[in-house]
Amino acid sequence: MIPDAEGVAPQRAQRPARLLAVLTALGLLAALTASTSGAATPTVTGVSVPSCFGAAARDPLAPCVNPALNFTAIPRPSDAALEPGAPCTPNRRSSPPVCHFGVPRQNATATVALMGDSHSTHWRAALAVVAATRRWHGVSIDRSTCPFTFARTPGRGRCAGWSGSVVRWLQAHPEVHSVFVSANSGSGVVPLPGMTRRTTKMNGYIRAWKALPRSVQDIFVIRDVPHSRNDTRECVTRAVARHRNPAQRCARPRAGAMRTDWQAVATGQAESERVKLIDLTRLMCDDDRCFPVVGGALVIKDIGHLTRTFSTTLGPFLGRAIARLQTPSS
To answer: Range of 120's domain?
Structure first.
């Protein structure tokens, strides 16, 4: 049993009549995305999604445990790499290329942008849940291995100019009032002369945020997620096959899983009311360990990318954090 996030004795949920194994990963996602209000238990092909599934198992405001999920991992680790990302309709004529998700623009109450490297795109499933609830139109602007930064990154100019093109795109689209940025905490940077790698990295993020047009009222920085070991997938597979709890058997010490995220650290030095940190680590880790499976959902599909399944279950908690931090007029 995974301890709850606040050390509160959790209430035991009732065991579902039929186990989660009858659900397909995509069907589960559709149900969770459709049920954003929490008013009803979502169903897929007539089967209820069990209580406490995914991030809900570590909800600090309503701790709960469902024993039926203790020996489950959805998706299976062998299938996780094949799990498609959250739907997003591409517009390749745009510069930089973007894709669209959430409510159609003509029906939306607001437009938001999700920006960064591949560690931003794994948050799209969570943000899609928020978008469905709030009737937001979402724009995803990403480039693999390229965080949204004005620091120089390694490689042959792959990321050079990309962040500037994102700024120009936002200047041309003042309807975007909120942006969400996230990045691989292990991403590289070329230190400036006389500066440490850490300082160069933080300054690069801060400079990029300052360059955003004033039409962007909120800059939400989402802290990077735990990183798994190379053998975590095999450990989870063995544990499930042997009817052992993969969350307990395959947990990783938090000190090794949580790399320092200098983008998150930089939010405290940005000196801007627009820049706000969202940290959902407590839904994946306790004070000592990070769990590869939470509430029956596989958290990380490779080394550092969320599964679409688990990301979707983070949606209500991402929405909760946004509601607490958002500028009232945005």
So the answer is: 11-325
